[in-house]
From TrEMBL:
Alphabetized SUPFAM superfamilies for the sequence: Tautomerase/MIF
Name this polypeptide is given: Tautomerase
UniProt-listed PANTHER family: 2-HYDROXYMUCONATE TAUTOMERASE, TAUTOMERASE-RELATED
Organism, scientific name: Oceanisphaera sediminis
Domain of life: Bacteria
Keywords: Isomerase
Length: 66
């Protein structure tokens, strides 16, 4: 049973998340030759303040570039 943990920076719509779940499930079915019913996906939204790149939070970078 594949279990996938996907971390995303917050802000995606429910529709986008549903599409991601469908697409990732389909990819697992093709690549791993498993049934869709066995695929488990955990999506985690990460606040922009809690995710940093190159020494700066995403929130700070977005504010600086706005």
């Amino acid at each position: 049973m594949p279990i996938l943990n996907i971390a995303l920076i917050e802000g995606r719509s429910n529709e986008q998340k549903e599409a991601l779940i469908r697409e990732v499930t389909d990819a697992c079915v093709r690549a791993l030759d498993v049934k869709p019913e066995t695929v488990r996906i955990l999506l985690q939204d990460i606040a922009t303040q809690d995710f940093g790149v190159a020494g700066e939070s995403v929130k700070a970078k977005r504010e600086r570039l706005a």
